[in-house]
Amino acid sequence: MEALNEQQFIQLLQSVPGGVAKIAFDDMLTLVYATDKFFSMIKKVSDRTSIKLPASLLRLVYSADVINLTQQLAKEKHRKDNMINFYFRVLQQDGSFRWLMISGSKTDETYQSGAKTVPVYCCAAVDITNLMLDYKKLEQTNEYHRVISDLARELFFEYEIATDKLMFSEQFREIFGKENVMTGFRKRLEQTKIIHEEELPAVISIFNSMMNGRKQVRFELRLIGKDGIPTWYICYASIIFDDNRNPYKVVGKASTMAIKSNESELVTHTPNIDIVSNVCTKDSAEILIKEAAANQMENSMSALMMIDIRNFKGINEVRSAIDGENIITSVGRVLKTSFRTSDIIGRLSFSEFIVYIKNVSSDKIVYEKANQLCKAIEDIHSYEHTKNSLVASIGVTIHRSSADHKVLMANATTALVMAKKVPTSSFEIFSGSVS
């Protein structure tokens, strides 16, 4: 094959898109040689005569990019493949910017830069302006979504089933002061201090149900931040299947419940408060319970309690005279301290209350809560040498998946009638089925 003569070689170099240059890898990126096309990438061809070689490429870089370019070059010095690659902006005469990518390989030539002998690279220039503009737009879009996510205090997560690894968005680190990637999640879930102890059993139960094939969940829980303050979150999670229809990942998000949402599941009603008991009024409680019961996820468990306070009138006269507080106010306080802020508490009539307990992990928890409530209400006014004490009768119904709130109230009332047949505080569970 016939070798190219010098003239042919120069013509070949001039024909390379973007141009070719020899660059000494010194502190100023000295241009030892450059074709007209290379110069035209940096300045117009008409300015070619104003640049005399050798010349500093670094002086032609847009000033705001010099520090970034210096950092790139510091990393390039450690490459083992004798290649070089960096990018920067140059300011055009019309005021616009052009992004350039310079790529090349080390030659056998060297250049004497002061007291240093540095290698020379044969490089080509590529105009990447359009690519960088698209990248910057994408970067701005991602930053926009990140800021919106931060403002909404949303935590996105994904769980890899095979590797047992849970990964949260970066914001997790800021809120909880913990690493946002957790390995061995199954074991760590049982020992975590981030989830409030009252919600942890339910969360473990929900996690196990998803590992056993449940496709979607929605639940509420309290998470404890690095400041030690518990905050209510609403959590959504869904199973992702691979091409063979095997579950391989769980994805979801947790949002603080103080944030408004357009999703239909979230409560939109602002409740009215009964001035005596400081819990929801009858109308507000029924609206909230109707919405919660109708939107409950399949296989979730919730409970409704109808509570009747007996021996109320006589004791209230004595209590008001001694303590200056209405018994109904005391009952309201007991109810609010006995249940979560996500549960719904209302006053139906003079001495009758209703409580809707959302997303419990087992019916045993409901029974224990009803038993504790009987004792707590008795303790409001209970003395050893008198039989004149408060009596709490509680009717309970439990349902899974969505339900009609009127049916739930009717079932709980049926159980309440049975509880009231006992002279002392007691509770009864509705044993029929919820239609």
What does this protein look like?
The chain is α+β, with helices and mostly antiparallel strands and 435 residues long. The chain folds into three domains: 17-133, 2-Layer Sandwich (Beta-Lactamase), CATH 3.30.450; 153-256, Beta-Lactamase (2-Layer Sandwich), CATH 3.30.450.20; 282-429, Alpha-Beta Plaits (2-Layer Sandwich). It contains twelve helices and 17 strands. A six-stranded antiparallel β-sheet has the order 3-2-1-6-5-4. Strands 9-8-7-12-11-10 form a six-stranded antiparallel β-sheet. α10 packs antiparallel against α11.
Number of helices: 12
Q: What is the first-to-last residue Cα distance?
A: 90 Å
Largest sheet: 6 strands, antiparallel
* β-strand number: 17
- The class by helix and strand makeup works out as alpha+beta
> In percent terms, what proportion of residues is strand?
25-35%
Helix content: 25-40%
CATH architecture of the largest domain: 2-Layer Sandwich
The CATH topology name of the largest domain reads Alpha-Beta Plaits
What's the CATH C level of the largest domain? Answer: Alpha Beta
Radius of gyration, CA atoms, in whole angstroms: 36 Å
* Major sheet strand order: 3-2-1-6-5-4
The topology string of helices and strands comes to: HEEHEHEEEHEEHEHHEEEHEHHEEHEHE
Poorly predicted runs of 5 or more residues: 258-267
